Amino acid sequence: GVEVGPQPQGVARADVLDKMRRIVKHGLDFVQLFNEGKEFPPCTIEAFKIMEKVDYPRNKNDEITAIIHPKLQDRDWQPLNNGDPLFLTLDGEVIPYQGNCTVYPTFINEAAYYEKKQAFVKTDKIKLSAKLLRCS
Predict the structure, then answer these.
(1) Shortest CA distance to 68 belongs to which of 51, 59, 80?
(2) CA-based max dimension of the chain
(3) Which of 8, 57, 93, 103 could form a disulfide bond with 122, CB atoms 3.0-4.6 angstroms apart?
(4) Domain shared by 48 and 73, yes or no
(5) pLDDT digits (tens, 9 = 90+) for 48-104
(6) Residues 53, 88: one domain?
């Protein structure tokens, strides 16, 4: 499967559709070249590994008491460091990120995840290595 976004629910965006088409085309090109016997050298790529889901701050009645800080909104895959603004309470108080390492949030403030009690997902940037690949 291929998921490309962010994209609001029920909205068809031309730029997102174009990205999805290009990803699928690259995948099909790879399959064709592999089937033709092309050899692919070893490589390393950056990827993001999910660490944990983070909920919105809530009160004793389970009601959300803060929203995503404007400086975090629309910054999926960007570094979030200790002390950076994370949430903004309805009273205007900034709640900073308190962590012992840099993380890379994603799925920030997506409507589909409100019911799942997820403000965003913390990820860690990692490197994946692939060995030489050829058709045998």
Answers:
(1) 80
(2) 63
(3) 103
(4) yes
(5) 999 999 999 999 999 999 999 999 999 999 999 999 999 999 899 999 999 999 999
(6) yes
| Residue that the structure tokens 């990692």 belong to | 126
**For the chain, what is the total number of helices (H) and then of strands (E)?**
1, 5
Alpha carbon distance 93, 89 (integer Å): 5
Task: Match 């460091």 to its residue by tokens.
Answer: 81
Nearest one of 68, 76, 71 to 104, comparing CA atoms: 76
Beta bridge partners of 127: 46
Structural contact between residues 4 and 15, judged by C-beta atoms closer than 8 angstroms = no
- Burial class from Cβ neighbours inside 10 Å (0-12, 13-18, 19+) for residue 99 reads middle
Task: For residues 117 and 55, state if they share a domain.
Answer: yes
Which residues belong to the active site? 3
Enclosing domain of residue 47: 42-134
